Amino acid sequence: MSATISSSPGAAPPDQFGHIEARGIDYIPPAERHGHARELFALWTAPNVTYLYIVLGGALIGLGLNAWEGIGVVLAGNLFWALVGLLSVSGPASGTPSSVVMRAMFGIRGNRINLAITGWGIAVAYEAINLSVGSLAGFALLATLGIKATALWKFGIVIVTAVITLAISVYGHATIVKLSGLFTAALTVCCVALAWFVAPHVNMHFVPQGAPHGAALLAAAFAGLTIIASGPLSWGTGADYARYLPQNTSGRAIAFWVTLGGYLPSAALGILGVLAGTAVDMTNPQTSFASILPSWFYPVFLLVIMFGSITNNILTAYSSGLALQAVGIKASRAITVFFDGIVGVSICLYALFISNFIDALNNILTLSVALLGPSLAIYAADILIRRNHYDGVALNDEAPGAKFWFSHGFNWAGVCALVIGTCVAGLCVNTPDFVGPISNLLDGADISSLIGPALAAVIYTAMTLRRRAATASTTVICEGTAS
């Protein structure tokens, strides 16, 4: 949608707490910009104080890593939050969401295809994951209350959780920012209490059965790195929440607060998951935690899981709604968010009632890295090449021949870099259902989170600089001929 919304005198601002946000992917004019970079800390902390990161930390013990190895992988994998911080600086510079900024990398048509897969498709998959995690906690909560979790009860929990999430997402940016501080405080208190109760049961000398050594240990560490990196790499939408900030907001401040807001809770909860994995069975954590938690706190713990999945999905649903608009769907943001919710609920119901959830989770997370990593690396390279200078009005011009139309609607530098980077990353993955040939050669090491993004960034940078040089040369020749 490229329509511009103007604010008439006396009208409510398009972005106001308690009111449905009026704007979608259109340009935010300077008169409507507001806020400070530091508000991004709570905004990014709230969705990442989520139980999913505890599950991912526990998965590292399942791979055969001991506590110290698992902690090292968690700390390293979450460094990808620095990339999310960098991408966020394009929001105030352009006044548009990430799904529109990326037209500069892929062209109008190329970006629609990219968003349909790596933007909207992956976002909806993550919506389903978060909804599944929250729903599983809800099922366990029913059991603690003495209620038999029939199919009807389970369906009801999924729907109620989804409705709460979508309602806040529909209200939009200002409401999300305002509530983030409250969500962060409440969830942090509960997670600190959880850590307090888990701490006495931690065994720092725990060695998983069949713990790997040598090359096998390195392979397990890289597999774990990919799993942990899937968290930050799923958030290539930083501009969505920074685009209302004034254009002169410090880019360093934006990158700092976003990185810190994402890294601290993700790393802390991932480490808690590693430590919990030395005490309980993390293949079924919603119920196994009951053995080490006080009986009165266990229901609170389950409610925290449900609440955390909601706060995470609020941002996911919001961004997926914007991505769907950028794909070309001519509907309001509220409608696209609602549509996303229907698709996410459908995937969640399949994962919970038909498929094995843990296997589905591992497959989605690992494969998403192969898709998202190269895309985000290209995005970061473009910001550095352009020095974060973006024309938000031009980015919203989708007409053939417009500034970001490139060649037939495709920027081939971005398209080629994305396809090659993704294909090579796919050759490096190691999932329960598929092991790439490069991963096989490396004894199962999954290096997709490193190789795919690096290769995509190098190819994009080289092709972009070559095109600029050719354009500059042509311009000089033409000027010389004219004179």
Describe it for me?
This protein is mainly alpha-helical. The chain has a domain at 30-356: Hydantoin permease (Orthogonal Bundle). The chain is 69% helix and 0% strand. It contains 21 helices and no strands. The longest helix has 37 residues, at 108-144. It is globular, with a radius of gyration of 23 Å. Mean pLDDT is 84; it is low at 1-12.
Concise overview:
The protein has helices spanning 39-48, 51-62, 67-77, 81-88, 90-94, 98-101, 103-106, 108-144, 151-171, 173-198, 215-233, 238-242, 251-276, 285-288, 298-327, 333-353, 357-386, 392-395, 412-427, 437-441, 448-482.
Number of distinct helices = 21
CATH level-two architecture of the domain at 30-356: Orthogonal Bundle
The CATH fourth-level homologous superfamily of the domain at 30-356: Hydantoin permease
User: Can you summarize the main beta sheet?
Assistant: none
Low-confidence stretches: 1-12
Straight-line distance between termini: 43 Å
Helix-strand pattern, N to C? HHHHHHHHHHHHHHHHHHHHH
CATH class of the domain at 30-356: Mainly Alpha
**E-strand count:** 0
Taken as a percent bin, the fraction of beta residues is under 5%
Helical residues, percent: 55-70%
- Alpha-carbon Rg, integer: 23 Å
Mean pLDDT: 84
Structural shape: globular
CATH topology group of the domain at 30-356 = Hydantoin permease
Label the structural class. Answer: mainly alpha
